[in-house]
Amino acid sequence: MSTINIAIDGPAGAGKSTIAKMVSAKLGYIYVDTGALYRTVALYITENNIPDEDIEKSLEKADVSLRFIDGAQRVFLGDRDVSDVIRTPEISMAASRTSAIPAVRAYLFETQQKIARENNIIMDGRDIGTVVLPNADVKIFLTASAEERANRRYKELAEKPDCPPYEDILKDIIQRDYQDMHREIAPLKQAEDAVLVDTTELNLEQSAEAIVKVIRDKTGREA
Q1: pLDDT digits (tens, 9 = 90+) for 161-188
Q2: Vertex 177 angle, CA 174 and 182, to 5°
Q3: How far apart are alpha carbons 137 and 156 in whole angstroms?
Q4: How much is the pTM?
Q5: Is the distance from CB of 189 to CB of 131 less than 8 angstroms?
């Protein structure tokens, strides 16, 4: 039986990663967080102070990889597990910028396609349905209002002592949306054959169930 590929795209803060993990667990598919790959490249570039003109050559030494440990995806830079290190606001913004660099996208492109060829996967990002997996069995564009995305992020960070004000989080999300939608290489956009799922009024479980229904309706498979 051929593999099933599910592409989930959408803007920053839409809950793609969290919801995709829930859906993959429900269906028994492998979850691939492409954003983690781009964040790891951004971390590599940032930590090594690599200027733009040297990025393409330096990527030969980057050694970015995904490993599935106890069913969970972890991302490595060499032998170092950076799954948690890459989740800072600084690296988020750096990833948005570096993901627009053609050499970075080419570097990660084959990694993503190889995983998709070999497994039933749910892959999320910003250009999965349009560029990385244009022939995906199911394409979903997951979104929510900028205000709701900022509110969710604020609640997520509220317990931390360095939590930024809601207004700053909203500003960052709007800026990130603009950067992602206006970059020259693989800008964020809804694929023509993607199903729009707006989660502004939905909680996580309702969002996951909505996507599971789309996948089952489109593929005719229960798992």
Answers
A1: 888 999 999 999 999 999 989 988 788 9
A2: 125
A3: 32
A4: 0.78
A5: no
**Which two structure tokens, joined as six digits, stand for 116?**
């998709």
Instruction: List, as own/partner pairs, every contact residues 100-103 make where C-beta atoms lie below 8 angstroms and the sequence separation is at least 24, other chains included.
Output: 100/179, 100/183, 100/184, 100/185, 101/52, 101/55, 101/185, 102/185, 103/55, 103/56, 103/59
**Of 91, 75, 127, which Cα lies nearest the Cα of 106?**
127
Q: Collapsing DSSP states into helix, strand and coil, what is residue 179?
A: helix
> What gap in Å lies between CA 157 and CA 21, rounded to an integer?
20
CA distance 94 to 89: 9
| Domain boundaries 5-218, corresponding CATH code | 3.40.50.300
Segments making up each domain of the chain, as ranges = 5-218
